Amino acid sequence: MSRRARELLTVTALSALLCAAAVAGTPTGTARASLVPRPAAPPARAVEVTRCAPGATLQGPRGQAAEVGVCVSGNDSVMSVTAPATCRRDGGRGHDTLCRTTGTWTARRDDGSVAAAGDLGGERAEYPGPGTYHFGVVVQVRSVGVDLRGRVRATLDFAERKAEPTHRVEVTPGTVAAGATTTLRYTVTRLSEQADPGARFGLTGEQGSGVELVSPDARCVNPPPGGQAAPVRGTHALDCALTDLRPGRPLTVLVRVTVKGACTGIVSKLGHWESGGQEFGARRVLAGPTVTCHKSSSISPGGRA
Questions:
Q1: CA distance linking residue 214 with residue 15, whole number of Å
Q2: Per residue in 142-159, pLDDT tens?
């Protein structure tokens, strides 16, 4: 083989190696990265944050005392409230001990409007967004020799931006009438590809009011009273398992509401997992629209959340 032929063969081999390196994604393969886009990364998980503030001292008739604080834990979507407390039962002569607290809480804005509410340590509420909130807690504190009740107040500031909604719930009409049966049409929409395609949709009226919620939808059942297995189902509530939510293809749930006794509104919530979340607290709850009740037969057009 001549020298000229060997040089041509060497050049050809080097060119082939460079092309192979480009296809393999080495630094010379930058052009390939621009031609084949990478799949979109899932949204980053929100960081859990806990804020606490001192509340008040509750005192009993025989020297019992409880120091109660207010703590809010959550992320840019949901939050929960607890009231940690330490107790002393003998007027300051004993040791401080941790004690159990139960009760309810309400968060209000500066104008007095309610931003969120719930049970202490209970189901998470929707995070209302950045701002200053005044928490009022009705609490019962229990420990050995201590049983105190009272009100505790604390003010907390939040700076986290509220997460964009991943689902939407709408209803028409927006009211029911006492002494009548009204058919409500709920529409549940998944707003993004990253959102959970499955969700649990719950509705409830006031237990013991005589209200009945019935749906012809096979995905919906009346849960047993108290969440326990029972042959008798509670008709004041409805639980729907929605497993095929797709962007651009909302699901519809029809609910017949019969108000037989006292007028009662219907509240709704949608529970779903956040993208990529498996640990405790990754489940999110979206408050749906509240259907109000009127003693007259006037029906409002509807609502959304």
A1: 73
A2: 998 899 999 999 999 999
